[in-house]
Design a protein that fits this description.
Elements lengths: L2 E11 L5 H5 L2 E11 L5 H15 L4 H15 L3 E14 L2 E10 L1
Keywords: Lyase
InterPro entries: FolB_dom, GTP-CH-I_C/QueF
EC number: 4.1.2.25
């Protein structure tokens, strides 16, 4: 059975290098897509992503993307594709900035 999920979650966490980013939670938007030859539980994965961001308080978006992709593949061995986009919509006035990581396995 092939499974394809698409998730979009918004929450607040500590993320960033700057002093003010390390002190106050900021809103982030995470968009996640994955394909696998095994069942993917979108509710479980959504919660895992959110908990990971809150627990590890990443210093860069790129660091967070790499962590999520590597650990997702470790957990879901039959995953064939993953794409994650993380944005910080309020960090720069009049802009929504972020980063993307896409991998085929």
């Amino acid at each position: 059975m092939q499974s394809y999920i698409k998730i979009k979650i918004t929450f607040k966490c500590i993320i960033g290098l700057l002093d003010f980013e390390r002190k106050k939670k900021q809103k982030i938007i995470v968009k996640f897509r994955a394909k696998s030859d095994e069942f993917l539980d979108y509710a479980e994965i959504s919660e895992w992503i959110k908990k990971s961001y809150k627990k590890y308080q990443f210093k860069t978006i790129e660091e967070s993307l790499e962590f999520i992709v590597v650990n997702f593949k470790d957990k879901y061995k039959k995953a064939t594709y993953v794409k994650i986009v993380t944005c910080k919509p309020r960090i720069i006035k009049h802009a929504k900035v972020g980063a993307i990581l896409e991998k085929f396995f």
